[in-house]
Amino acid sequence: MNPRILLVEDDPTSRAFLLAATRALPAEVDVASDMAQAIALATTHRHALWLFDANLPDGSGSALLQSLRARGLATPAVAHTASHDPGEHAALRAAGFVVTLAKPLPAVSWATALRKALGVSEGPSGTAEEVAVYDDSAPPVWNEAQALAALGGNAANVAALRGLFIDELPASRDAIAQAAARGDGDTLRAALHRLRASCGFVGATRLLEASGRLHAEPGSGAALRTFLAAAQATLSSP
């Protein structure tokens, strides 16, 4: 049986990425955007793992963890934060988090950390095939020459179309991740086909390659994690 996990994240883009990456473990995921929702879900359901944003609209991840511990709940918890400050990460571990993660991060790194926190064997993941996705030979996020060629050398048109592409990418990414989770190969391939065309127009080289791999291997967990990481890198790059 897949583990049930509680994800707490208030930023919509980060929440969508982390939700898709967590479901791909595979896992059943409950989602909250603030402390109040998180407490309601944590006290209603039994979770194998909690994933708490360190900073929430109505408090902090540490305060949330303290509140749930006071209720007698002992579920292991992971903290995720946009901060890279070693002192903040040390404080979160001192507050009781078993792992702390700095965002953004590749989906494969997220999945590896969650498996470690769950005490689940990595199995085939972490092999040379997956590690190679993130080495220095990975394609660049953007290919300016390709984008300019597609749009007749007009840089203003490239910028405008790329902005539209970025605006629509989270919804496209989530639809693809959800189709993969359902095992809906037809919907997955159709969505990837549309996305690959858009990638070509705007020069989204890394995402184009990752989309092609997932299109060819729709049942591959490694291909899905590579796709999610490429989508996050594209959203995070200027």
UniProtKB/TrEMBL annotation:
Q: Where is the Response regulatory domain?
A: 4-118
Q: Which SMART domains match?
A: REC
Record-listed Phosphohistidine modification sites:
H193
Which Pfam family is one of those matched by this entry? Response_reg
Gene3D superfamilies the UniProt entry points to: 3.40.50.2300, HPT domain
Q: Which residues carry this modification: 4-aspartylphosphate?
A: D53
Residue ranges occupied by any HPt domain in the UniProt entry: 154-238
Q: Which UniProt keywords apply?
A: Phosphoprotein, Two-component regulatory system
Task: Supply the PANTHER family for this chain.
Answer: STRESS RESPONSE REGULATOR PROTEIN 1, TWO-COMPONENT RESPONSE REGULATOR
Task: From the Swiss-Prot or TrEMBL record, give the protein name.
Answer: Response regulator
